[in-house]
Structures are given as C-alpha cells and as structure tokens.
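ESCALATION

Customer reports they have been waiting on this structure for their group meeting. Please prioritize. Original submission:
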Amino acid sequence: MKFPAEPFKIKVVERIKTTTRKTREKLLKEAGFNIFDIPAEAIYVDLLTDSGTAAMSDNQWAGLMIGDESYAGSKNYYRLEKTVREVTGYEFVIPTHQGRVAENLLFSTVCKSGMIVPNNTHFDTTRANVKANGAKAMDLPIAQALDPALDYPFKGNMDVKALDKLLERDRSKVPMVTCTVTNNSAGGQPVSMQNIREISDVCKRWKVPFFLDCARFAENCYFIRERESGYDKKSVKEIALEMFSYADGCWMSAKKDALVNIGGFLAMNDGELASLLKQKLILIEGFPTYGGLAGRDLEAVARGLIEGLDEDYLHYRTAQVKYLGESLDRGGVPVVKPIGGHAVFIDALTFAPHIPQSQFPGQALIVNMYREAGIRGVEIGSLMFAEKDPDTGEAHYPDLELVRLAIPRRVYTTMHMHYVAESILKIFHEREKMRGFELIYEAPVLRHFTCRLKEL
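Update from on-call: job pushed to the front of the queue and completed.
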C-alpha cells in the first residue's frame, strides 16, 4: 500500500473549527502577517511544527498516573536514564524541559567568543544558541543538499572534506562538531551511517568531540534501513545504537521522535562535561533528576522513546509524509526531493519566481495558505535565516527558500492530507496573484517568531 493504514485506533478526538476567509484576513492583519501570532483555535490544519504536537498513546497517558514528583531521585528519572542508555549507549543522562534548554546548556558551557561550531545545517534555535555565546555557526552541507529537485537519498549529509579542511585550519577554535539527524533545515533529509562514520573518523583524528542533535533520530535510522546498503536486515533500534556509537554524545528535543508534548535530554560519556552541565542545570532549571520536568513527563518521555522506534509506526509515519509530498509533486508543486521524514518542504523560489528573496516568497506562501484554507506552515528561508553584513548592511540570503509543512505525529488523517494538497494546488494554479512582504518590525535574534510585516 502506498499509504499504509494507521497502526493505531483513535480513542479521543479534539474538535477543530473552520473559519471564514473574512475572519482569517482580519486575523492576519492583526498579527502583522506573522503566522506565529494567529490563535491556534483559528487554525484548521496546523502544520507549523512537529515539535510537541504529537498525540500521546494510552500507554504514555497511563504513565502520567505513576508520576513520582519527588524533588530528587524520582523513580521516573531512573526509568528515563535506563531507557536513554539502552537506546543511545551513553552513560550520563541529563533531563531538560526541551531541546532548546539542552542547546543552551551545552553551548554556553563549551563556546567562547571567536569559536566555530560546524554542523551539516544548523536549525534556527541551534544557530541562535551558538551565536548568543559568541561563536560562529558554520553550515557544511553537501552540494546535493542545495538542489531541491535532486532526488538523492542522503541530502542531509555533511561535507566531510570541508570539515577536515576547517579543522586543519582552525582546530583550536572548534569546541565540538555537531550533526543534525535528520537535517531539518535542508528539507528533513536523512544523514547516512557512512557519513556519520566519516565525520566520527575526522573528529577522532583531530581530537574534537562530536555530538548529534538527535530530535528525529528514529526517522533518520528508519531511512538508513530503507536506503543504505547493508542495513535492510537490521532493526531500527540496532541501527540507532550503531549511529550513537560514532558520536561522543547527543542532545534531544523529545518533543519530536519521543512523541511527547514537553521534554528533552543531553546524554554523553564524558563525566567531566556532564558534571559541568548538571551544575548549570541546577542554576537555571532544577535538580539533575528532574531538569525542569514533572516526574510524570519524565515517564512519558521514557515510554515515548520506545514507541518512537516501533517499525510499524515509522513505516506509517514516513509514508504519510511521502503521500502528501507526492500529491503536491504530481500537481506540479516544486517540493524538496526525496520527501523527508517529518515534513514536506516546498521550494518557494520556484513556486513564486516573481517574488524576490528580499520580499520573502516563503512567507507569502505561508500567508496565502492560511488566507485561503486555514492551514498554518512555517517559512524556512530569507525571513528566518537572512543576515545583514555588520559592515555594509547588505543582506545575505540563504541558498534555500523553503516552506515547511511539518506533520504532527499520530494527529491528522489521510483526508486532512487530501485537504492540504488540494488547497496548496489551488494556490499554485493562481500563484501569480501572490504578493511579497516587507518588514516593519524585527527583533535582533530569531526575528521570524515576533516580526511584523506589511503586504506589498
């Protein structure tokens, strides 16, 4: 079957409401055309993010009832610690309330002014946390990642030769090498085991730590099994253990592949680094056995990590995303190929070639998706990533101008995917009507979250 039936039954439903175009126009203007400021109850299909938006299982909800809310030494922490060790192989486990805090703890500890942190492609919060601590976030994607239409199995890979040259030139400035699996900013594309192994070899040769941003590790490992030679007979859990073995540690927003609404962690084998991170954790989040989370949430993460590795679920999950992507592709909509694991990415530059990057074509598509159909997505392009030269003021635009349709896990049905595809196809056929935008307010950091715009 091209789109396998859901490997679960629906026990509880949440009502979603439709709105009129007139209401949506009013809300857009009040929000300054920033889709983050639209009330969730006014969204029909919400594809803004797959982070924290999953539907938890009956097993996870049952786990909430045995939450141990002890300040120190909660039994749920030990359950989480045991599970993370089994999945990753790392000894030291530090819970956090989400991935962003894990990034903040890590980079505020290892980064100093003038340092460089390489990655296959940093996502927005990772980049911001690196920059906030005085370091430069350097992206080293492979050339194939910059061609949205190219069907290449592992477009999430890092350019290992470029990494080697960087370390040869600036080893003293690199506190660690990082790799995001799957590569969100490059279209939700997986990283191959061979590439991870090669990154590991380079890091060992130059004696630099290697950490994985593993928010979507299960989806990445599923793609390795499906696409990489020699892995078709291995379980996803076995593949995950091998993948983690090549790195020195990881951080995770559990709000993705651990299928929870809140939670995250850091894990590593370096006890000295773990001790430093725990000291800082106590200062800003709480005791190291709860890390800003209730005991019940620790339990939900532990159970969700195991459920996220279920292969029937992963088959359904990736197939649902692929179904939406192929529906758009058949209609002529330019999407990033191959279809990624957690989202469909639309190439906004090709979708609306009459809108220059300086006028945010991705945001124009986002606005029109909500205006026409009540669908919310997110722009990953010039609004999110363009930077101004500090000396000349000239804007430098990213290579990719994308719109991400992130599909929450176990939330929407096939008919919702039909609705999204039909709505975007309608916009595509009338795309010459789309207009660009200009900024009227922007914050100095992560401007896309709070900016306000004017339609041209």
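Sent to customer with the following note: The radius of gyration is 21 Å.
Escalation resolved.
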